[in-house]
Amino acid sequence: MSEWLWSPEAVHPAIVDRATWQEAQDIGAEHATSRDQPGPVVSGRLYPYRGRVRCRDCRRRMAGSPTGRFIYYRCTHNPANPRHAAAAPDHPRSVKAPEPRLDDLVATFFRTRIFGPGRAELLALQLPATDAEAAARRDAEAARLNAIIRKLDGQQNAQITALGETSANPGDSAAAAMRARIRERFAQLHAERTTAETRLAALAAAVPRAVDPAILGEVPYAGDIVPAMPPALKARLFAAFDITILWNKTDNQATVTAVITDTTLHALPGILDPDQDGYHDTTATPTGADYAAPAAVGHLAQPPIGCLLTRYLREPSGRYADRYRHDLPGLFWACLQ
């Protein structure tokens, strides 16, 4: 309520009166569960990546679920749901990200791009040095999206032509099946075109500027600190940097994004303090019959990490976002979006 904006006068009739609304908030709070609260804990289990992993194909958040000894984050896409299938026609049947794999990727990201001594040099390679260079990148991306839209427009026109040439005889079952498939394909193309047009509109609304990465220099050097963090502290670190991960099963790729603000800088001393409870930065790796070490990353049916690309973006609000992309062998991105 402290962030509400009040107009001088009411602009429409109230659906319920203020007292009823407040009573509903109180009742709702009394019946809240762990799933209603922000944070990584659900039903007593801690999920550090809760709400932070999205599927690249459908952009849905991937939900954490335990499988054996490990946690997997699974996409909720349902291929049997017509709406899901129409929105993401090329979506794999199942998409899941093992938490040990996410731990490895994110730890590498923080070690090299956030807390490492070479972070400034890595960043400098990715930033537009001038406003003109930023505008050129924007224009190149706009040209790519326009080409995609033109291609989709031609494919939609072809579907319309094919539909017009199909027999309208209701007794022709083959023609009826063809018309249904043409309509389905047209809906898929329409969804792809809508996505491309939305991205193009967002690109046109942004003002391209050269980026000043000075805020990165205020982040302390902490090295490879993430693997030693207990899950609760790890979750706090992810929240401070607003970490998000785009999981791309089709291309065997993950993109990690971090946002650095003044709030991030204020939160870091408390998160990185090694004297707090639960922090084990000097504890040796546990051993013994009762300890079950997580499977090595190479044993998770995933190829080893190949190359790294990163970029920092200056948002309209002045925030800086670090986009870090892991490409696996056989794939290399020559340019960044």
State the helicity in percent bands: 25-40%
Shape: globular
The total strand number stands at 10
Please state how the strands of the largest beta sheet are arranged side by side: 3-7-8-10-9
Q: How many domain modules?
A: 2
Q: What is the terminal-to-terminal distance?
A: 38 Å
List low-confidence stretches: 32-38, 281-337
Helix and strand sequence: HEEEEEHEHHHHHEEHEE
Strand-residue proportion: 15-25%
Q: Which class best fits the helix and strand makeup?
A: alpha+beta
Q: Helical region count? A: 8
Mean pLDDT: 76
Using only C-alpha atoms, the radius of gyration works out to 24 Å
| Major sheet size, sense and barrel closure | 5 strands, mixed
Blueprint of the fold:
Blueprint lengths: L17 H13 L10 E2 L2 E2 L6 E3 L6 E6 L2 E6 L6 H6 L8 E3 H16 L4 H6 L6 H34 L8 H33 L25 H10 L3 E5 L4 E8 L1 H11 L34 E8 L5 E8 L10
Parallel strand pairs: 3-7
Antiparallel strand pairs: 1-2, 4-5, 5-6, 7-8, 8-10, 9-10
Describe this structure in words.
- The protein has 337 residues and is an alpha+beta fold.
- The protein is built from eight helices and ten strands.
- The protein has helices at 18-30, 82-87, 99-114, 119-124, 131-164, 173-205, 231-240, 262-272; strands at 41-42, 45-46, 53-55, 62-67, 70-75, 96-98, 244-248, 253-260, 307-314, 320-327.
- It is globular and about 80 Å long.
- The two termini are 38 Å apart.
- 20% of the residues are buried.
- The model is unreliable at 32-38 and 281-337 (pLDDT under 50).
